[in-house]
Amino acid sequence: xxxxxxxxxxxxxxxxxxxxxxxxxxxxxxxxxxxxxxxxxxxxxxxxxxxxxxxxxxxxxxxxxxxxxxxxxxxxxxxxxxxxxxxxxxxxxxxxxxxxxxxxxxxxxxxxxxxxxxxxxxxxxxxxxxxxxxxxxxxxxxxxxxxxxxxxxxxxxxxxxxxxxxxxxxxxxxxxxxxxxxxxxxxxxxxxxxxxxxxxxxxxxxxxxxxxxxxxxxxxxxxxxxxxxxxxxxxxxxxxxxxxxxxxxxxxxxxxxxxxxxxxxxxxxx
Amino acid sequence: xxxxxxxxxxxxxxxxxxxxxxxxxxxxxxxxxxxxxxxxxxxxxxxxxxxxxxxxxxxxxxxxxxxxxxxxxxxxxxxxxxxxxxxxxxxxxxxxxxxxxxxxxxxxxxxxxxxxxxxxxxxxxxxxxxxxxxxxxxxxxxxxxxxxxxxxxxxxxxxxxxxxxxxxxxxxxxxxxxxxxxxxxxxxxxxxxxxxxxxxxxxxxxxxxxxxxxxxxxxxxxxxxxxxxxxxxxxxxxxxxxxxxxxxxxxxxxxxxxxxxxxxxxxxxxxxxxxxxxxxxxxxxxxxxxxxxxxxxxxxxxxxxxxxxxxxxxxxxxxxxxxxxxxxxxxxxxxxxxxxxxxxxxxxxxxxxxxxxxxxxxxxxxxxxxxxxxxxxxxxxxxxxxxxxxxxxxxxxxxxxxxxxxxxxxxxxxxxxxxxxxxxxxxxxxxxxxxxxxxxxxxxxxxxxxxxxxxxxxxxxxxxxxxxxxxxxxxxxxxxxxxxxxxxxxxxxxxxxxxxxxxxxxxxxxxxxxxxxxxxxxxxxxxxxxxxxxxxxxxxxxxxx
Lengths: 270, 545
Fold this sequence. Notes:
The complex is a heterodimer of chains A (about 270) and B (about 550). Chain A has about 270 residues and is an all-alpha fold. Among the domains of chain A are: about 40-125, Cytochrome Bc1 Complex, Chain D, domain 2 (Orthogonal Bundle), CATH 1.10.760; about 135-220, Cytochrome Bc1 Complex, Chain D, domain 2, CATH 1.10.760. Chain A is built from twelve helices and two strands; from the N terminus they run H-H-H-H-H-H-H-H-H-E-E-H-H-H. In chain A, helix 5 (about 80-90) crosses helix 10 (about 185-190), helix 8 crosses helix 11 (about 205-220) and helix 10 (about 185-190) packs across helix 11. The model of chain A has no long low-confidence stretch (mean pLDDT about 85). Chain B has about 550 residues and is mainly alpha-helical. Chain B has three domains: about 1-30, no CATH class; about 40-45 and about 50-375, Up-down Bundle (Cytochrome Bc1 Complex, Chain C), CATH 1.20.810; about 440-540, no CATH class. Chain B contains 20 helices and ten strands. Chain B has a two-stranded antiparallel sheet with strand order 1-5. A two-stranded antiparallel sheet of chain B has the order 2-3. In chain B, a hairpin with a 2-residue loop joins strand 6 (about 330) and strand 7 (about 335). Classes of the chains: A mainly alpha (about 270), B mainly alpha (about 550). Chains A and B meet through helix 8, helix 9, strand 1, strand 2 and helix 11 of A and helix 4, helix 6, helix 11, helix 12 and helix 16 of B. Chain B: Its main location: membrane. Chain B: Its EC number is 7.1.1.8. Chain B: GO terms for molecular function: metal ion binding; oxidoreductase activity; quinol-cytochrome-c reductase activity. Chain B: Its cofactor is heme.
């Protein structure tokens, strides 16, 4: 130590310390730095972000602000995550119509899936949020339909009706019908809570729970669902049943009564 | 020769088997007398007289299918795990009532069809009673001597509502459970005794383990038993009073023109029964009703949007949905006016229509029997009242389905609720005024038709160039039909001083009666029907014009 301290005022001491420091950080970098493939992914990712940013500037910035910070016309998108973008844009809810109603309805999708992914990448880069789920997460394998039904009735039916036929909310808002919604979008909706819907993160509804709910909806509310009783009448319960009973039940019976009463045994005219 | 002899001897010796059976029965039951009295009962021909039959037949269908359902239904709230054939519910915990309803729907032969016939027939039964009641109301068939039968019918309608409600609750599914919870809430809102009543009804805290079994005996025994009795009474009175008929040539207050029960109406009514059964069975085979499997078992911690009762209870749902959530808190107690007021209005809506006949007979002071029906236009105040009542009822139905109106017509549910709140008060008044005007307009048109004939649509050009439309005079039958109704004169308060010069005190009720009578039959409320003199003057004079 004495040797070292004796030389500490040597003219080259500063140079040596600098070299050592550089070597240490460089070595540490070489040890920690990602490999070449990752570099390529990163490039692709940053490319997607760049493309997404361009799309965003054209299609979204007028309401959500140039940097996704939000304006009086649209909320901040920092931290909403890729899943929210994939849901909102993938179901056509975004971009919203200029004259907005109570809530943005589902409509024709205006972006391709590739563009949606780019937009999602850009928004995800603004702040951490839920990612787009994979097929393994929302697919039907390993799902418990009955459990999903119970979860649906406990968490979803209040707004979406027993079997996902939708329902009214206040002031013209509504919970949409879930007939034939893409399982990915159902998953994303639960994850991100779009518009008036509360979000159900994994801490509230686990990945398995979400899978069960999706499988239940697929069983009771898709094109392939069997209706053992015949026509479903909208699946809306007693109101549509009552209407049907009045119009087709009593209506038909009155028609029959008119017919029977008209066919009377007339006395022969002599 | 020998053959004729044998037939003769047979006919002389022994009557045919059927006659012998009839003789045997007559000796013990007196059926010949009954048949003689009733087989020739006359039914007038009109489709609106068959609405009651629709109700009777759907009631019979409900009883028949209901018996089948009781063979498989378990009225128990024991918890079981479902392992039947409906996959999306397998492994779920549910009450035995729900599980046995699933069993009926999926595993009993014909079970689902019978269940659907039972339920569709119930909706048609109630709808039929509603329309039948309105027919009786608007034609004034409730007048003396039929007031009691009107009340019997009204009671059948109300009991039908509650029988339907208890039946709807039996499967213990999430929809009906919500309905029962609704009812419990209404009971709880009753001041002081509400909690006790609720605990008494449910055997403790809601939902408890009793209500399905209790509703079951009410649904299959108590209410249908009373209803069956009332139906029999209703029919006996129909026979006893003889049928009413619409005015027409040859039809008087003392006769009934139509076809006899035997054989014409026996065949017609029998055929009509099968037609009713056929229509209901066809509907049940085509359309789902109350798919309890889609709703899932009832759990008090779950609820769904779009939870409504069957249509006949819809107006009570509307009352609750549109009522502001008022409540009063005092001394640690809560008076839930938001529920209690609707609970009080609920019977009021029904009673309003039930008591009307008595109000009308008090106003007219008419003690005579009436067997000739009114055309609704010739009783404008009554018709206007009926339409106002139906408007009231329908407004409440809109309130009961406010969420579906909102989603299907893209409206705000709040706006619908406010519409119903205002229309609850304004709607009936508007309907009353408008209906009365329409009735008076129709009366004027009838008068015109009688005096000037029917517009023929033929335009004639007179020699001096004037165009006129040719009016065809009505036939004698048509003239009779249009002028057969009688018109009341508004009541007057009698002389205030009697013959001895003593001042008479006029009671408040009498003043009210006179006022009402003026409103009913004053100048504003009916168009004087054409008199014979008017008719003669016009027809004998300058001809068509």
